[in-house]
């Protein structure tokens, strides 16, 4: 305390100036770090907005019951030197007959080679399997695809996609080719029933009336 009392006005002025200078340096350092982070973020956003974005998926064929391996560039720029790996190695359950190609060897051969160029919105599809795949319990159900590619500014960040074939199965069932046909048959059935009941008294209870209907799946509840 005695030392503080001994300080003159000039001493206090110097102390205040030094403290102010330290605070200014500290604030400037924070501002530089913040500006550096903002600049890096802006550069990353700009780079990502102008990079190719290659996705790999297994999707049901909209025109049938097959499974397709899909490689697509959804980004705005060209992807080059696209490399795709799969863990575990991708296999097909489709057994070749006669001169038919072995789809497992075909697919693994495709994934073993780099795709030299994949323009924006380009979609490559490869036949992988059919619906019998879901009855084959010996084959893996989950696959992880790793994708590496080069864009306009060099290597693109590695992307990983996990595909669960059990989920794909439900999509395939929802979009099955016979779905629309079943809906049309249902409308025809309703129309036939309506025509059959016009101008006729109701059938007595217990009468063996002939009914038009679709075959029911095992375990389903029938119309009473």
Question: Gist?
Answer:
By secondary structure, this protein is α+β, with helices and mostly antiparallel strands. It is built from five helices and eight strands, in the order H-H-E-E-E-H-E-E-E-E-E-H-H.
The tally of beta strands, per DSSP, is 8
Calculate the mean pLDDT score and round it: 77
What is the overall shape? elongated
Computed structural class: alpha+beta
Question: How many angstroms does the end-to-end distance come to?
Answer: 100 Å
**Strand content bin:** 15-25%
Order of helices and strands: HHEEEHEEEEEHH
Number of H- or I-type helical stretches: 5
Radius of gyration from the CA trace? 34 Å
Query: Which runs of at least 5 residues are low in confidence (pLDDT < 50)?
Result: 177-182, 205-224
Helix content: 25-40%
Reported for the largest beta sheet, the result is: 5 strands, antiparallel
Describe it.
This protein has helices at 2-5, 9-49, 103-112, 165-174, 179-197; strands at residues 54-60, 67-73, 79-87, 115-118, 123-129, 142-151, 154-155, 159-164. With 224 residues, it is an alpha+beta fold. Strands 3, 4, 6, 7 and 8 form a five-stranded antiparallel β-sheet that branches. Strands 1-2-5 form a three-stranded antiparallel β-sheet. A hairpin with a 2-residue loop joins strand 6 and strand 7. It starts with a helix and ends in a 27-residue tail after the last helix. Mean pLDDT is 77; it is low at 177-182 and 205-224.
């Amino acid at each position: 305390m005695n030392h503080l009392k001994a300080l003159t006005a000039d001493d206090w002025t110097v102390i205040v100036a030094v403290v102010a200078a330290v605070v200014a340096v500290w604030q400037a350092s924070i501002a530089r770090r913040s500006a550096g982070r903002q600049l890096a973020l802006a550069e990353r956003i700009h780079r990502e907005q102008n990079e190719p974005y290659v996705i790999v998926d297994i999707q049901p064929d909209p025109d049938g019951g097959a499974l397709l391996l899909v490689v697509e560039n959804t980004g705005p720029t060209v992807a080059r030197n696209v490399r795709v790996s799969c863990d575990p190695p991708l296999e097909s359950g489709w057994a070749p007959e006669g001169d038919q190609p072995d789809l497992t060897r075909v697919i693994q051969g495709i994934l073993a080679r780099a795709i030299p160029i994949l323009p924006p919105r380009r979609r490559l599809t490869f036949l992988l399997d059919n619906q019998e795949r879901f009855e084959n319990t010996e084959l893996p159900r989950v696959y992880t695809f790793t994708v590496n590619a080069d864009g306009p500014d060099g290597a693109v960040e590695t992307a990983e996609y996990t595909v669960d074939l059990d989920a794909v199965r439900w999509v395939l069932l929802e979009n099955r080719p016979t779905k629309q046909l079943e809906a049309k048959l249902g409308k025809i059935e309703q129309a036939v029933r309506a025509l059959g009941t016009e101008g006729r008294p109701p059938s007595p209870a217990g009468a063996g009336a002939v009914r038009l209907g679709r075959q029911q799946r095992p375990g389903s509840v029938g119309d009473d």
